[in-house]
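Lecture notes, unit on protein representations.

Consider one protein chain, 176 amino acids long.
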Amino acid sequence: MRCSCGQNMQAHTAKASDARPYCYYRCRKVSDYGPQAYSQKGIRVDKVEPLVGDFVSGMLKNPEKVRRGLEVLIQRDHNGAHQDSAREAAAYEKNLAEYAHLRRAYQEQQAVGAMTLDKVRLRLEELDDARVTTETEVSALQRSQERVEELKKDRDVVIASLEASIPNALGALSGE
């Protein structure tokens, strides 16, 4: 939940004068800056949670809304992670080939006496660090692409499962 100011709301528990705990949601600004810095009142849990429950139940009972939400998630992952993954992958492959070329060149320079062994060792360590970083980026790119493909593949299975089980299961739940 968000406060009217846009900050997240946080659950908070306090004790009433009769020492019974009561729970409410309050703006994160109250936690960060103190109640004097922000005058927005908290919202009691017993007033909010039925509304949230109804909202979630309504969403889950409507598979088309879930499908649209999954589509948004898939699109966001697809666009946000790596918009031009093919070009990015090609650049990484080019970098890895360049690292291999430089490695051979440094070794050849040391073989003909143009570089000292210590200098070659230092350059090779730098190349290895760059190679490991690039390989990590390639792995992250592949994982991102796999996640999008898994979401696409699982989307229909998730929707079918929701359509078959959730409406009846939610209808059988009590408010508690």
